[in-house]
Specification:
The complex is a heterodimer of chains A (291) and B (188). Chain A is an alpha/beta fold and 291 residues long. Chain A is built from 15 helices and eight strands. Classes of the chains: A alpha/beta (291), B mainly alpha (188).
């Protein structure tokens, strides 16, 4: 088994608005023997600025990769946007000599050089590939056999397939198996692999809110008692924006949205307080009471 | 305006005659030199991208196939100034489904990058850039949040190396684009 020690790349959205994801992830990581080292002087992964300037994205991402290289540690992220960006840039700079030389030319200005010595993984990959389902199962003390949930993967964990190479984007199974290991039932629903729409917020609100509402209605149709996410942006779309969606479409969902580590944490025997469940906008006490 | 008239206008819009003066025949070559957009010429307009696009499902006007065609035809000003260019969610479904292996999302990103150079930058990017220059992160995290981190027993956020971030902004020419984006043609 690989050494379970990573630099934790927190990104921007999680410290800004989604602390409950970080709190619960740190709890379950510790329980699984995953050591998380704080990443020194990191900056935004670069993804938010990619539409404006690809080069600024590349150099911001590469700078983070260089910091990890200096520490001699692989990166783990909680945000799929950060994971996707850092993974893609890492792969591209390792494989494309011309681009590596060009980007290193830009990095020279800040005294860094990309060497290509580390790996980047999202939490889901660390759990599925490095920790393994067997080991996770051993830590489950209170199987959640009474609850049925719907999963929402987060596009950047799996797409584009040729650059990411994790799970099957058309029929993703890994989050499902991670959910099932907790004892909970993971339901199939219509358009399960569709995007939540979050990246469009800020430019246009109606389209992403319609998209998220469509997904919520499909989850409700199969009687899901909660949605499980692994992305701070998907979480904001379904949890933070749920009341907005309800007002906009004059509907009621009341669908709790849990970060995957909150679900796993409950199965491990952590209390809802320890997992910061009270920070969720949509009240999760009903589903928690079934445990 | 009656709904009927709006529909008629849409139809006329779709059938607009292209004027040769509006076309830049070299535009597609300019785009195809950009990383990720190399295969723009391979798009044969099958429409898989639009059919599978989650945003297109809920938008009356966003059609990735159309954006690709406009770029191929050299309708440079029209594509660069269109509001639709900024609606791609970068979910990469089109990239995974394209039978011609065109990275549609990346072509759209390349077009957005050119649009920014031409002065079309939605204000949200100026805000993001400002926050990154000031804090290293895309959002300015309020003091209250930082205090709550401490109360929750979370480690303090590391201090960002703002000098390096600012140098990278200058080195890539992005600082100038941000300054420029504040005035001129920006619309959305």
């Amino acid at each position: 088994m690989p050494e379970l020690k990573y630099l934790l790349f927190l990104g921007c959205a999680i410290p800004y608005r989604v602390a409950s994801y970080e709190i619960s992830a740190r709890k379950v990581a510790a329980k699984l023997g995953v050591e998380l080292v704080e990443m020194p002087d990191y900056n935004c992964c670069g993804l938010p600025l990619d539409p404006a300037s690809h080069d600024v994205m590349l150099t911001l991402a590469a700078r983070n990769l260089c910091i990890a290289e200096k520490q001699g540690l692989n990166i783990m992220t909680l945000c799929p946007g950060c994971a996707g960006t850092l993974r893609k840039v890492n792969k591209m700079l390792k494989e494309d000599k011309h681009e590596r030389e060009r980007v290193n030319g830009l990095l020279k200005e800040v005294g860094l050089e990309f060497k290509g010595t580390i790996q980047v993984k999202h939490l889901m990959q660390v759990l599925a590939e490095d920790v393994g389902l067997e080991k996770i199962k051993e830590t489950v003390k209170k199987p959640l056999t009474k609850i049925s949930v719907a999963e929402h993967n987060g596009c950047h964990v799996v797409r584009p397939q040729k650059h990411i190479g994790f799970d099957d984007p058309e029929n993703p199974k890994i989050l499902k198996s991670l959910i099932e290991v907790t004892g909970a039932r993971c339901l199939d629903y219509l358009d399960e692999t569709e995007c939540c729409g979050a990246p469009v917020i800020g430019v246009n609100d109606k389209i992403p809110l319609s998209l998220a509402r469509d997904k919520l209605s499909h989850m409700k149709a199969v009687n899901a008692q909660a949605v499980i996410t692994v992305c701070p942006f998907c979480h904001m779309m379904f949890d933070t924006n749920q009341s907005r969606i309800e007002r906009m479409f004059n509907e009621t969902y009341g669908m709790p949205v849990l970060h995957y580590p909150q679900l796993l944490g409950l199965a491990m025997g952590f209390s809802p307080e320890e997992l910061a469940l009270k920070e969720l906008r949509v009240d999760a006490s009903k589903v928690v009471s079934l445990i | 305006m009656s709904e009927k008239k709006e529909t008629e206008e849409k139809k006329t819009e779709q059938r607009t005659v292209l004027k040769i003066a509006e076309i830049d025949p070299k535009f597609k070559y300019e785009v195809s030199k950009i990383l990720g957009a190399e295969k723009i010429m391979l798009c044969f307009q099958c429409g898989t991208c639009t059919a599978d696009c989650p945003v297109a499902r809920f938008s009356d006007s966003y059609r990735p196939r159309q954006i690709l065609r406009m770029a191929q035809l050299g309708l440079k000003d029209r594509v660069l100034s269109s509001d639709q260019l900024w609606l791609c969610a970068a979910c990469y479904t089109c990239v995974d489904h394209c039978p011609q292996d065109v990275e549609i999302s990346s072509v759209i990103r390349a077009l957005r990058n050119i649009a920014v150079k031409e002065g079309y930058m939605p204000p949200v990017f100026k805000e993001l850039a400002g926050a990154i220059l000031e804090t290293g992160l895309a959002y300015k995290i309020p003091e209250l949040r930082l205090k709550r981190r401490q109360e929750a027993g979370l480690p303090a956020l590391p201090k960002a190396d703002l000098e390096s971030v600012s140098r990278l902004f200058n080195q890539t020419g992005f600082s100038k684009l941000v300054e420029k984006g504040g005035n001129s043609n920006a619309r959305t």
